[in-house]
Amino acid sequence: MIDRRTLIAGAAALPLANAAARAASPAPSPRIDRLDPAFDRIVPPGATVEFLGQGYRWAEGPIWVPQGNYLLFSDPASNIMYRWARKDGITPFLSPSGLQTPVPPEIREPGLNGIAVAADGSIVGADSGSRAIVRVDLATKQRTILADRFEGKRFNSPNDMCIAPSGAIYFTDPPYGLKDADASPLRELDFCGLYRLTPDGAVTVLDRSHRRPNGVAVSPDGRTLYVALSDENRPELLAYTLDDKGLPTGRRVFLDMRKGRAAGDPGLPDGVKVRADGHVFATGPGGVHVCTAEGTLLGLIRTGKAVANCAIGEGGRTLFMTSSDRLAAVPLLA
C-alpha cells in the first residue's frame, strides 16, 4: 500500500523504473516561476526560497501566531509540533502534539496536522491520532476535544481545518492517519467527509462525495470555502459558494492541477491559505500556486520537493512552506 507521503510527493504516478531513477537523482533546485506581471506585486522580483530547517519525517500544518510573533508547524508522523521564531530558530513546542497515549500499530500519523488560531488566542487543530478536532491553550498546553464523532461514529483522521469569520470550523476527514487507510479496521465511517463544526458543537457533513478531501481555507468575507482534493485522478482545488448561514449552495473547480501532475511535478493539491486581499496560495504539483480570487494563476513557488501546506506570517511579509522534510520561506510584499 502506498502511504500518504509517497502519494502526495508524486511518486505514485511514475512507473517503477522512473520512480527509482528519480529517487536516485538530487531534488530539483528551488525556483520561482513568474507567470503574470501581477505576481511582482506579491513576491518581490529577485526573491529566493530560503530553508529554515530540515530533518522532519513529513512537515505539515504551519500557522502564524501573531500574539507571539512565531510560527507553529507539525510533524504528524513523529507526533511533535515545532515553534519557529526569528530570534530563536526552531524548537520543539508540543510533544506529543496529538495522541496522548502510546501509539497503536493501526495509527500511521498520531500527531496534530492542520491548525488555526482561534479568536481567543488558543489554537484549534485537526488531530489525526486522536481522530478529533481539538483546542489547545498555548499558555497551559491544556487540550479540549471539540468534536470526535459524526452521528455517533468516530471520524477517520481529521486532516486540515480552518476557522470562518463566524467562528464555524470547516474540516476534512480523509483516512491518512490510519495505517491501512480505507481498509483500516478502526474506520467507522464509510466516507471521507467535508464538515462544519459550529460554536455550539453541532457537526454537519457538507460533502461526502470526495475520495481524498484535504486542505481547506475560507475567504476573508466568509462566502467562499476552498477545498483541495489530494486525489491522483482528480487533482483539483474546489471553491464552494457559502450562504449567509455558512452552508454551501454550489461548487466549482477553482484550479485544475492536472497539467503539473502529468508533467511529473512533485506533490498533489494539499494545503491552501487565503491572504486578506483574497489572493489564494494553494499547494499542489510543483509547489505553491499563487492565484487571484478569480482563479487566475499568477506564479508558482517551487522548493524542489512536494509542499504539503503554507502559511502567511510576519505581518504578511513572509510565506512559510512545509515541504516534505523541510521548512522553507519566501518573502512577500505585504
Structure overview:
The protein is mainly beta. The strands form seven sheets. A five-stranded antiparallel sheet has the order 1-24-23-22-21, with no helix packed on it. The protein has a single domain (4-331), classed as TolB, C-terminal domain (Neuraminidase), CATH 2.120.10. The protein has helices at 4-8, 16-24, 258-262, and strands spanning 31-34, 50-54, 60-65, 70-75, 80-85, 89-94, 112-117, 123-127, 132-136, 143-147, 149-150, 153-154, 161-163, 169-172, 194-197, 203-207, 213-218, 224-229, 236-242, 248-256, 272-274, 280-284, 287-291, 297-302, 309-313, 318-323, 326-331. It is globular, with a radius of gyration of 18 Å. The longest helix is centred in the N-terminal third of the chain and has 9 residues, at 16-24. Helices cover 6% and strands 41% of the residues.
Describe what is shown at a glance.
With 334 residues, the chain is mainly beta.
Strand line-up of the largest beta sheet: 1-24-23-22-21
Round the Cα radius of gyration to an integer and report it: 18 Å
> Mean of the pLDDT scores?
93
CATH superfamily heading: TolB, C-terminal domain
Q: Please count the beta strands (DSSP E, at least 2 residues each).
A: 27
The major β-sheet equals: 5 strands, antiparallel
The helical percent reads under 10%
* Beta fraction: 35-45%
Could you give the topology of this structure?
Blueprint: H1 4-8, H2 16-24, E1 31-34, E2 50-54, E3 60-65, E4 70-75, E5 80-85, E6 89-94, E7 112-117, E8 123-127, E9 132-136, E10 143-147, E11 149-150, E12 153-154, E13 161-163, E14 169-172, E15 194-197, E16 203-207, E17 213-218, E18 224-229, E19 236-242, E20 248-256, H3 258-262, E21 272-274, E22 280-284, E23 287-291, E24 297-302, E25 309-313, E26 318-323, E27 326-331
Antiparallel strand pairs: 1-24, 2-27, 3-4, 4-5, 5-6, 7-8, 8-9, 9-10, 11-12, 13-14, 14-15, 15-16, 17-18, 18-19, 19-20, 21-22, 22-23, 23-24, 25-26, 26-27
